[in-house]
């Protein structure tokens, strides 16, 4: 696999950069980002450079600026340092750099940068280390060592908290108090403009000097800044070590029990004082243990592959999901770019339900439950969106931020190459399949976990409310005696304002059918809950309407060749040669030649929503039908969506096209860590990373949730000698070990029997039983 980073075949946990390159800052900043689901900090260098994006985010702290849509504000920087040696400021564009290496250890989240820097015939050795604690969500720790190797020197370091940060020019923060406590602890307070969220950022520095000499210190205040300047004289080969401790807290934090700004100050300051009593190595060991306990002990995936980077790719995907997922708070969701960049403003999409939720459903069901609960908490915003559009029920926002915010999609986007004007972003208005996606993901969690109480408490209501929306959204075609859904965007966003998008219509029908089943079950088996929901949602009025309409929802039939039309007009559009766009170095190259309106009139697909439909509802379609539609749609797909490749990997695997499946899998792995050095400038692609796990476990591992039934039918690519992984099913842990000839399925301390099917045969295991199945 061709990657944009160096790797170690013997250690699939290390990403390495062997040369400093200003042109690649965005790529490395996002891919080597540090975080813990609460805070995310891009891997900017400590010293500043042109073209860097110095982002620090706290999950859920959304704010608006000057009428724009809400976004995560870029918080004051706590990792920046200015280092001066012998009067020369450290700058890798100056002088000579040798033995440069920057590594990210995925196993414990440690970012390390080492190099020798020579200037005017003097050489200095630098090491910078940094981690965001997985054990203490609020803690960020840095260690810096400086050693002159050719002569004595004077080292000056300027370090503190820098609030002069923006979101690409938009300033979300109001300056608050800045002060130094006990001549040692610095603190900066700030507040968001519109949402009025308060933050307290605190920092302190501990030095280790030769002979334990004291370091000279001078405090400096600036606008939105608080710094201290330190100075120390070193003899040749002596080392100065600085450990910088930082805490970040907000009054939105679920673990903050205070009520006012003074209590928030003390909350952050207290965390800092306690943490700074401990050494860097002690805190690093603690976070490594937390990584193992919270992340790596769940859903273990191990490969034996001809390409060792396959293992690194799945490790990287799981690392990024871990630092992007706010496990601590169900009021927050996974942003499309995680906490790694300003792309998509920190908003959540359907990406969560279709591409990332499955990972948590099968590895950490408690986290999956929280992600579903986030959507339940968003019902008020979904109700408001439906009402604003003159519909009933819950119409979920295409882009979601704080649960009650409702729709947060920007209205205008990039420039049209033909008109030169900003293009309207229609997704927030007419990309409506998100409502079905939310319902689908919620029910997937219930079926896989068996959490019927959560279904009663929240999921049933969510699906019923979604069905109310779809029923009100349907448009009756009297001449054809059917209900249609007009003027939408499906998952293929290269087709706007289409009628009867197959994915949208099919999933809307599924939502209403599911709501009917829930209504009937509640009425018979849970009358008290039924009465509560019926009164609130007017179910007795809705139910007969659903019954009358559901079977008349228009589903486009395959044509004479067996091809399912993507929408009313797709198959009648002109076809063009898109080979140069399918194999281009960067995605989106088609817009160098066409604008979106022109693409809308061609059989060109960003990602095939027909194929996605065949994957998600595979039991509804025959293998021959899947193959016909693959053969038709895949050649017309540019895969410009980062969501596309993993879906194609899974479906190709299902169709026993193992070479194609493996190729799509590796291409999916390359979206972020591949050779395109611009691919992650605005942040990583969280959904594609979830898709990598899906391709491994659902595609090659053959795991599939079919309604309430678990199916296991693996088919490994030729390059893999072995695949093993763990999943949860119905609250029980399963271990699967697969090679080219057989699969071993074992239960681990199962408290209740676990059943699954393979090639039509049902197997049942309990306790610590296992079964070996020949492939």
UniProtKB/TrEMBL annotation:
Keyword annotations of the record: Glycosyltransferase, Hydrolase, Transferase
SUPFAM superfamilies linked: Galactose mutarotase-like, Six-hairpin glycosidases
Domain of life the protein comes from: Bacteria
Gene Ontology molecular function terms on file: hydrolase activity
Domain Glycoside hydrolase family 65 central catalytic: 316-694
Glycoside hydrolase family 65 C-terminal domain residues: 704-765
Every Glycoside hydrolase family 65 N-terminal domain range: 17-252
InterPro entries the UniProt entry points to: 6-hairpin_glycosidase_sf (IPR008928), 6hp_glycosidase-like_sf (IPR012341), Gal_mutarotase_sf_dom (IPR011013), GH65_N (IPR037018), Glyco_hydro_65_C (IPR005194), Glyco_hydro_65_M (IPR005195), Glyco_hydro_65_N (IPR005196), Malt_Pase/Glycosyl_Hdrlase (IPR017045)
Family: Belongs to the glycosyl hydrolase 65 family.
Name recorded for this polypeptide: Glycoside hydrolase family 65 protein
Species, as recorded: Lactiplantibacillus plajomi
């Amino acid at each position: 696999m061709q990657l944009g980073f160096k790797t170690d075949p013997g250690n699939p946990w290390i990403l390495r950069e062997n040369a400093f390159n200003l042109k690649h800052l965005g790529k490395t900043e996002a891919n080597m980002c540090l975080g813990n689901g609460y805070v995310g900090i891009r891997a900017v260098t400590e010293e500043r450079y042109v073209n860097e994006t110095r982002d620090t985010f706290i999950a859920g702290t959304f704010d608006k600026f000057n009428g724009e849509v809400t976004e995560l504000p870029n918080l004051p920087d706590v990792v920046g340092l200015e280092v001066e040696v012998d009067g020369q400021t450290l700058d890798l564009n100056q002088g000579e750099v040798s033995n440069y290496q920057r590594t990210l250890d995925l196993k414990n989240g440690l970012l390390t940068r080492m190099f020798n820097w020579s200037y005017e015939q003097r050489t200095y050795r630098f090491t910078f280390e940094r981690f965001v604690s997985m054990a203490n969500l609020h803690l960020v720790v840095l260690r810096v060592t400086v050693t002159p190797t050719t002569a004595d020197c004077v080292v000056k370091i300027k370090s503190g908290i820098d609030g002069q940060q923006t979101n690409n020019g938009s300033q979300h923060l109001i300056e608050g108090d800045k002060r130094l406590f006990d001549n040692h602890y610095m603190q900066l307070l700030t507040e968001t403009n519109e949402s009025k969220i308060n933050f307290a950022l605190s920092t302190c520095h501990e030095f280790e000097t030769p002979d334990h000499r004291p370091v000279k210190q001078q405090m400096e205040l600036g606008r939105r800044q608080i710094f201290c300047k330190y100075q120390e004289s070193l003899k040749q080969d002596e080392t100065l070590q600085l450990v910088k401790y930082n805490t970040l807290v907000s009054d939105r934090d679920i673990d903050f029990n205070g009520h006012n700004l003074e209590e928030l100050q003390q909350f952050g300051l207290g965390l800092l004082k306690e943490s700074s009593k401990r050494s860097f190595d002690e805190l690093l060991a603690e976070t490594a243990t937390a990584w193992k306990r919270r992340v790596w002990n769940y859903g273990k995936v191990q490969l034996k592959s001809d390409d060792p980077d396959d293992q690194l790719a799945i490790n990287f995907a799981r690392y990024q999901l871990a630092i992007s997922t706010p496990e601590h708070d169900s009021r927050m969701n996974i942003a499309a770019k995680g906490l790694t960049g300003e792309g998509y403003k920190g908003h959540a999409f359907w990406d969560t339900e279709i591409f990332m939720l499955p990972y948590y459903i099968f590895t950490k069901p408690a986290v999956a439950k929280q992600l579903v609960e986030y959507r339940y908490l968003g019902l008020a915003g979904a109700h408001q969106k439906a009402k604003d559009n003159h519909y009933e029920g819950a119409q979920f926002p295409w882009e979601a931020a704080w649960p009650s915010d409702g729709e947060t999609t920007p209205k205008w986007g990039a420039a049209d190459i033909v008109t030169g004007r900003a293009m309207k972003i229609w997704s927030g208005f007419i990309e409506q399949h998100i409502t079905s996606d939310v319902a689908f993901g919620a029910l997937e969690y219930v079926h896989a976990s068996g959490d019927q109480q959560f279904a009663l408490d929240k999921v049933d209501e969510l699906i019923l409310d979604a069905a109310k929306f779809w029923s009100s959204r349907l448009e009756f075609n009297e001449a054809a005696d059917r209900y249609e859904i007009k003027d939408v965007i499906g998952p293929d966003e290269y087709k706007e304002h289409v009628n009867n998008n197959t994915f949208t219509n099919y999933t809307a029908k599924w939502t209403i059918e599911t709501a009917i089943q829930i209504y009937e079950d509640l009425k018979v088996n849970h009358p008290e809950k039924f009465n509560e929901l019926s009164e609130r949602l007017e179910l007795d009025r809705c139910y007969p309407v659903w019954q009358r309409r559901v079977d008349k929802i228009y589903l486009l039939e395959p044509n004479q060749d067996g091809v399912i039309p993507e929408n009313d007009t797709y198959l009648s559009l002109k076809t063009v040669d898109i080979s140069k766009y399918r194999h281009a170095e960067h995605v989106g190259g088609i817009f160098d030649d066409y604008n979106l309106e022109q693409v809308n009139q061609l059989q060109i697909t960003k990602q095939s929503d027909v194929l996605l439909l065949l994957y998600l509802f595979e039991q509804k379609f025959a293998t021959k039908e899947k193959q016909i539609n693959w053969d038709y749609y895949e050649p017309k797909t540019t895969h410009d969506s980062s969501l596309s490749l993993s879906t194609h990997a899974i479906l190709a695997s299902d169709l026993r096209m193992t070479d194609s499946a493996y190729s799509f899998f590796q291409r999916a792995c390359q979206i972020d860590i591949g050779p395109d050095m611009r691919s992650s400038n605005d942040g990583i692609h969280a959904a594609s990373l979830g898709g990598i796990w899906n391709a491994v476990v659902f595609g090659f591992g053959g795991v599939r949730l079919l309604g309430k039934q678990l199916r296991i039918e693996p088919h490994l690519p030729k390059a893999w000698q072995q695949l093993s992984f763990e999943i949860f099913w119905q609250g029980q842990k399963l271990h699967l070990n697969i090679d080219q000839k057989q699969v071993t399925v074992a239960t681990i301390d199962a408290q209740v029997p676990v059943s699954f099917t393979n090639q039509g045969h049902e197997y049942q295991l309990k306790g610590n039983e296992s079964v070996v199945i020949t492939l």
